[in-house]
């Protein structure tokens, strides 16, 4: 029987990072992964690299370039002929990028001495794990430490069962070979908005049916209100308080029944995407046999060192409570590997950035204004619009604003919320500032290059104390 210091189950952004870091620290490491790629071959990277973060951003970039060519170049004095889109070529490009990155992880495993066990893992207890390959071959391995990093899957909706053709989940929505004339999306969260943006830019008439009465409730309310206004102007039909009660496929169309403030209604789509969230993959792992407890939603409770209820078994990423974000899972992976190796184990969940890759992008870190009000925390707010930012105006991308929240007594930055161009990159400065316990005054006194988008954060920090120069 092969024995390892650490056996990682799952090679997504949490698992493969944990495996590599543990190997760097001198542990003998193996990683079990069962994913089969579109080419029918085993693949590393999990959901994020295969059908999540990377492929969706590839399609977002392609659709954005197409939209800019059709609608955004005239303002720069650039004229082009008729612009067309080849969805199959766009999807093929996405697949090439995915293959490059999944192959890259294979190379990193080899470089760091991590053994890839291709197949499905099942815990047997007493540090033993059964691995079953796709062709049915079975082997049992042992490990001093076992890490569950199996990630999450799309949450199914019983009233709209996925058939893989007309009704799809977020993975299926990445492989349309033609642009649907009418596209319906159940859920107006991060995934729904990003996928809706892709296909709306390519010509779909997109309707998002959101059961919640509030748009993006996790975001700062002011940012969410601006986002709703902007997306509506772009043509996304976002219907809040719309609870889907059924979906039927007939004659190549999807009939969707839903209820809203106006009562029972029905509408027709060519394709329907179910994007109502994700759930942890913790079934069929033998957790009960190993003494690993789960809560009522299938999440695995862990302590501050990611230890489960079973000695020597750990869990990270989407299978434990907290934000279901790839970068959070990666940091969990590094922390648990270092903890197992005897080092310090810590992740600051208070400074994890959230991002929605629409256009304009939305990003935030820390607490929202509504949360501070509810908690009775005294605060000051500084807001700066991209309309007053020279670089944004030069880019023809001046929608949105930066909002900074600081403690009214200590001036420590409590949250930063951005809707605007390249918000996903700008938020990093705020994360670093908050990790170093910066004040609004600190950011205000740092020289930011001109002209840059980052000046908007500088001005928002100034605005927190009514010192903004350009508004």
TrEMBL record:
Enzyme Commission numbers on file: 1.8.1.4
Single Gene Ontology BP annotation: 2-oxoglutarate metabolic process
Localization in the cell: Cytoplasm
Record: residues binding FAD: 57, 150-152, 318, 324-327
Cofactor: FAD
Keywords on record: Cytoplasm, Disulfide bond, FAD, Flavoprotein, NAD, Nucleotide-binding, Oxidoreductase, Redox-active center
Keyword Oxidoreductase assigned: yes
Record: residues binding NAD(+): 187-194, 210, 277
Primary residence: cytoplasm
Domain of life: Bacteria
Family: Belongs to the class-I pyridine nucleotide-disulfide oxidoreductase family.
Protein name, as recorded: Dihydrolipoyl dehydrogenase
């Amino acid at each position: 029987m092969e024995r390892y210091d650490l056996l990682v189950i799952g090679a997504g952004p949490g698992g493969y990072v944990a495996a590599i870091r543990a190997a760097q620290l001198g542990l003998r490491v193996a990683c079990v992964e069962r994913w089969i790629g579109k080419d029918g071959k085993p693949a590393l990277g999990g959901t994020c690299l295969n059908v999540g973060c990377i492929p969706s951003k590839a399609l977002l970039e392609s659709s954005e370039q197409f939209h800019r060519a059709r609608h955004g170049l005239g303002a720069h004095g650039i004229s082009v002929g008729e612009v067309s889109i080849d969805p199959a070529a766009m999807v093929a490009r996405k697949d090439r990028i995915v293959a490059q990155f999944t192959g890259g992880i294979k190379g990193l495993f080899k470089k760091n001495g991590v053994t890839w066990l291709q197949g499905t893992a099942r815990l047997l207890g007493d540090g033993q794990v059964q691995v079953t390959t796709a062709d049915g071959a079975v082997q049992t391995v042992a490990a001093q430490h076992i890490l569950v990093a199996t990630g999450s899957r799309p949450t199914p909706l019983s009233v709209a069962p996925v058939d893989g053709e007309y009704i799809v989940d977020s993975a299926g929505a990445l492989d349309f070979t033609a642009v649907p004339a009418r596209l319906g999306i159940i859920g107006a969260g991060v995934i729904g908005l990003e996928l809706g943006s892709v296909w709306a830019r390519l010509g779909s008439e997109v309707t998002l049916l959101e059961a919640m009465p509030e748009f993006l409730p996790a975001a700062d309310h002011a940012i969410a209100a601006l986002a709703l206004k902007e997306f509506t102007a772009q043509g996304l039909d976002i219907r809040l308080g719309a609870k889907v009660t059924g979906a039927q496929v007939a004659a190549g169309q999807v009939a969707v029944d839903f209820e809203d403030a106006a009562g029972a209604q029905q509408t027709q789509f060519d394709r329907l995407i179910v994007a109502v969230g994700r759930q942890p993959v913790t079934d069929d792992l033998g957790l009960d046999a190993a003494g690993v407890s789960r809560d009522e939603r299938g999440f695995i409770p862990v302590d501050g060192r990611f230890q489960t209820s079973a000695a020597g078994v750990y869990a990270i990423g989407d299978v434990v409570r907290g934000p279901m974000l790839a970068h959070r899972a990666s940091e969990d992976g590094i922390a648990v590997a270092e903890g197992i190796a005897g080092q310090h184990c810590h992740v600051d969940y208070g400074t994890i950035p959230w991002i929605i890759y629409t256009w304009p992008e939305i990003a935030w870190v820390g607490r929202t204004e509504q949360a501070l009000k509810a908690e009775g925390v005294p605060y000051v707010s500084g807001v700066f619009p991209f309309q007053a930012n020279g670089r944004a105006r030069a880019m023809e991308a001046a929608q949105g604003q930066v909002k900074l929240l600081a403690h009214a007594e200590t001036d420590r930055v409590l949250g930063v919320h951005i809707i605007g161009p390249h918000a996903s990159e700008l938020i990093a400065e705020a994360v670093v500032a908050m990790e170093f316990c910066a004040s609004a005054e600190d950011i205000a006194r740092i020289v930011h290059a001109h002209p840059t988008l980052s000046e908007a954060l500088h001005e928002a920090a100034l605005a927190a104390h009514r010192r903004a120069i350009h508004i």
